């Protein structure tokens, strides 16, 4: 198979973790006789520095011309600490999601048997956790009207959803639930927010089309609690944009490290794969970043964009093996034990794949 993949490394540790995902993907391609054509493009702070724009048109064109996009991370403290910055790296990410129509963000949360002790949560609570968030990604408060009033002394952000936007993410949720355990949780704040009431109403109307799916309606604050109390009670959770942003960071604690969880953002035409962690600028260039979330994102890419399930499974198998034998980066190493650098983890996985 011929795979055309856009490569957006972004900022901070982005280039390092992307490098390992490329190495591993190339090893997979070689083994299964595929041809990957990588095309690099700039995003984030790196793109602002080079071209004054965090998501330049050139980058958008490269994404459109590719079968899939593999993305590292975006963000730089220089902008975080400057509330007056005219342009921010994150804007590039949001514009990219919107322009590529990536309305559904698929964020799985699962545990690795060999890492159960790494989570601050009790082992017996998290064992066997296997859930997926479907986070709406191109609407809500992230994209609503915002601004200042009263000479800058008052500020507002608005959360707007229309029925069609809710329906298309709900369809993804119901379909995913049908393929999994036929259990879906609609996360909202319908006791307070009008947008949540429309969200709930839409899901309730759609229930009849999926009679086999058991739907629960839960308020986001309660989900935040139950998620870490009884993660095993969830399977598919569908959320609006901001709720999903917050809950998926929280859920990453279950797996033991932010550096482990992959994600996919899909729309009707395009698909982008990225780790859920940020650009971790303090670690940039030190070779300590954990590349596994990005490598597992590449596995999702093989499976979801190309239907190459065996290829994806082999990546997962190699990752599991590396964790079991302790060939891991610093974040996962036992205190006082040796650990591998970012690129050594990639090298080890390649050896396993070969
Ligand atoms: C994420 C990130 C982004 C978001 C930021 C970097 C804009 O936190 O992908 O979860 O809030 O969506
Ligand atoms: Mn986030």
Descriptive tags:
354 residues; alpha/beta; Isopropylmalate Dehydrogenase; 10-stranded mixed β-sheet; two-stranded antiparallel ribbon; 43% helix; 19% strand; globular; binds 3-isopropylmalic acid; binds manganese (II) ion
Structural account:
With 354 residues, the protein is of the alpha/beta class. It folds into 2 domains: 1-103 and 259-354, Isopropylmalate Dehydrogenase; 120-255, Isopropylmalate Dehydrogenase (3-Layer(aba) Sandwich). It is built from 13 helices and 12 strands. It has a 10-stranded mixed sheet, sandwiched between helices. A two-stranded antiparallel sheet has the order 6-7. Strand 8, helix 8 (194-206) and strand 9 form a beta-alpha-beta unit. Helix 11 runs antiparallel to helix 12 (309-324). The chain is globular, with a radius of gyration of 20 Å. The mean pLDDT is 96. Manganese (II) ion (MN) binds at residues 245, 249.
Binned, the helix content reads 40-55%
What is the number of helices?
13
Largest sheet: 10 strands, mixed
Strand % is 15-25%
Structural class: alpha/beta
Strand order of the largest sheet: 2-1-3-12-11-4-5-10-8-9
CATH architecture of the largest domain: 3-Layer(aba) Sandwich
Query: CATH homologous superfamily name of the largest domain?
Result: Isopropylmalate Dehydrogenase
- Tally the structural domains: 2
State the distance separating the first and last CA atoms.
19 Å
The top-level CATH class of the largest domain is: Alpha Beta
H and E string: EHEHHEHHEHEEEHEHEHEHEEHHH
Regions with little confidence, pLDDT below 50 for 5+ residues: none
Rounded average pLDDT: 96
């Amino acid at each position: 198979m011929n795979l055309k993949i856009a490569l957006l490394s972004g900022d901070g540790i982005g280039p390092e973790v992307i490098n390992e995902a490329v190495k591993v993907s190339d090893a997979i391609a070689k083994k299964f006789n595929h041809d990957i054509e990588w095309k690099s493009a700039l995003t984030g702070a790196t793109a602002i520095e080079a071209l004054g724009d965090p998501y330049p048109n050139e980058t958008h064109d490269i994404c459109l011309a590719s079968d899939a996009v593999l993305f590292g991370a975006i963000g730089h403290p220089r902008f975080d600490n400057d509330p007056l910055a005219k342009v921010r790296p994150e804007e590039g990410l949001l514009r990219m999601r919107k322009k590529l129509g990536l309305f559904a963000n698929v964020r799985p949360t699962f545990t690795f048997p060999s890492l159960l002790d790494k989570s601050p949560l009790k082992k017996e609570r998290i064992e066997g956790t296997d859930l997926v968030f479907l986070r709406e990604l191109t609407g809500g408060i992230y994209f609503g009207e915002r601004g200042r009033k009263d000479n800058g002394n008052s500020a507002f952000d608005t959360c707007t959803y229309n029925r069609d936007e809710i329906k298309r993410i709900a369809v993804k949720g119901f379909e995913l639930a049908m393929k999994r355990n036929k259990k879906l949780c609609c996360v909202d704040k319908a006791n307070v927010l009008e947008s949540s009431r429309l969200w709930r109403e839409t899901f309730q109307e759609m229930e009849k089309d999926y009679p086999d799916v058991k739907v629960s309606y839960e308020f986001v604050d309660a989900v935040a609690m139950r998620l870490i109390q009884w993660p095993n009670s969830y399977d598919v959770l569908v959320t609006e944009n901001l709720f999903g942003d917050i809950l998926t960071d929280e859920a990453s604690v279950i797996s033991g490290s932010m550096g482990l969880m992959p994600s996919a953002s899909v729309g009707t035409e395009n698909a982008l794969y990225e780790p859920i962690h940020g650009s971790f600028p303090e670690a940039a260039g030190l070779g300590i970043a954990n590349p596994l979330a990005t490598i597992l994102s590449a596995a999702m890419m093989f499976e979801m964009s190309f239907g190459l399930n065996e290829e994806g499974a082999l990546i997962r198998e190699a990752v599991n093996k590396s964790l079991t034998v302790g060939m891991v980066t610093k974040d996962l190493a036992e205190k006082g034990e040796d650990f591998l650098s970012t690129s050594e983890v990639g090298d080890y996985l390649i050896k396993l794949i070969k």
